[in-house]
Amino acid sequence: MATRGQDIVSVLKQQIEQFGMALTLVDVGTVIEVSDGIARIHGLAAAKYNELLEFPKEVMGIAMNLEEDNVAAIILGDYTQIKEGDEVRCTGRIAEVLVGEALIGRVVNPLGRPLDGRGPIKSDNTRPMERVAPNVTLRKSVDTPVQTGIKAIDSMIPLGRGQRELIIGDRSTGKTAIALDTIINQKGGDLICIYVAIGQKASKIARVVATLEAHGAMEHTIVVATNASDSVALQYLTPYAGCAMGEEFMEHGRDVLVIYDDLSKHAWAYRQLSLLLRRPPGREAYPGDIFYLHSRLLERAAKYAPEYGGGSLTALPIIETQAGDVAAYIPTNVISITDGQIYLETDLFNAGIRPALNVGLSVSRVGSAAQTKAMKQVAGRLRLELAQYRELVEFAQFGTSELDKATRARLERGQRITEVLKQPQYAPMPLEKQVMILYAAINGYIDDIPLDKVVAFETSFHRFMEANHPKIGKNIAKEKEITAKTEEALKKAILEFKQGFLG
């Protein structure tokens, strides 16, 4: 009994000796001014740039301007709740966002809070929104295609995994349609898609989500959205949040596609934020670091070398131009950051050529490095045929009676290729079908088909190939090239179909 009492005494002695209160120091400041979603805080000498700050009533903010006598912070919640004299605390955490598998299929805001009414997101994993882009030694050159399912893009402006390709054009020229078709085309594949909507109308975001759900694409997609009524602070953070979510998958060796719709609105939000923070305005009232705003975001798109996991993040930023002005401030900035651009033209769109792709101004700087051999076999000739056709159209508008037979034939073929490249929305096409119809077009098999029958010819041709010669398509899909044997079989099948179609 005595020994038990001694044991208790020794334990108590030990606890008394080791007793001590852990002191934590928290940097605390006071709000001296609050307006338009910006708070100026006295104190907070230890605050870091981009650090999360805690306001009363669970409202959070981010430190943006670290000045000599105060800190200016953007408020992420309802700033009307905050008043002069309120206490503000540093959290020691940099602005971060929820990441992980649990987000797939969900619609969230930049803070990772659900907007789809399907309950909380079960993930404790977070990442900083801002991060330094992977350096050159970690990267590998782009060599694997991202199939968009759009004939004109996959053949002439190929996208690769890890690339940054700008989609640029006036409003209502089909920019978002190209992005959505690309997401829908990844169904059943290994590419995770993140659609980032920045300051869009709530009705447009709802339409996009409904479209993706209708085509079964939400199973591999995350939608990060802020609508036009959200604060500029949230709009500014949206693309960085989407990028951080994508980087989580990339670092686990997976492939991700991020669409930023659109960076024009992002630049507007940042301009508004900078002017409210009283930063000096520059050209077009944008702040001096507007280039860095987008370069630090888009440089995070990369393809990792196999020894670093081999994951990739492909970026498709969208920019809206005003009256086709590609030489404006923000468009030229983003063009200089990206690896090429897809330029959509209002005149082509109105003329019924959809996607309204201007092949002359569109370019992919990764080029055929990211194309399968089968597509290379048909795409090289396709670009040449279209370039020559465009040149001849300039002369032909003065009257075709003077033109020789060879020139007229080239014009006829160019018109038919243009018809073949037209494609309805939400109808992406697999690689083998694209290769077969483009092969028929560039080798003159549709030259004698009446122009108004070309679309019907293509639809019937795909049905015929699926029903009577499925092996040809399967071989192209499997081998990723047109072998001599496949080419012979394809020629015979095209001639066989043409006899029935014309007959």
How would you describe the overall organization of this protein?
There is one protein chain. By secondary structure, the chain is α/β, with parallel strands linked by helices. Helices cover 40% and strands 19% of the residues. Strands 8, 12, 13, 14, 15, 16, 17, 18 and 19 form a 9-stranded mixed β-sheet that branches. Helix 12 (431-442) crosses helix 14 (470-479). The radius of gyration is 28 Å and the shape is elongated. It starts with a helix and ends with a helix. 43% of the residues are buried.
Question: What layout of secondary structure does this protein have?
Answer:
Elements: H1 2-18, E1 28-35, E2 38-43, E3 51-54, E4 60-66, E5 71-75, E6 87-94, E7 96-98, E8 107-108, E9 126-128, E10 145-146, H2 151-156, E11 159-160, E12 166-169, H3 175-185, E13 191-200, H4 202-214, E14 221-227, H5 232-250, E15 255-261, H6 263-276, H7 290-298, E16 302-303, E17 312-320, H8 329-337, E18 340-344, H9 346-350, E19 363-364, H10 373-396, H11 405-421, H12 431-442, H13 454-468, H14 470-479, H15 484-502
Parallel strand pairs: 8-14, 12-17, 12-18, 13-14, 13-15, 15-17
Antiparallel strand pairs: 1-2, 1-6, 2-5, 3-4, 3-6, 4-5, 7-9, 10-11, 16-17, 18-19
Residues in β-strands, percent? 15-25%
Helix count?
Answer: 15
Give the uncertain stretches in residue-range form: none
Rg on CA atoms, Å: 28 Å
Instruction: Characterize the overall form.
Output: elongated
The total count of strands amounts to 19
State the end-to-end CA separation.
110 Å
Largest β sheet strand count, sense and barrel closure = 9 strands, mixed
- Give the helix proportion (percent range): 25-40%
Overall mean pLDDT stands at: 92
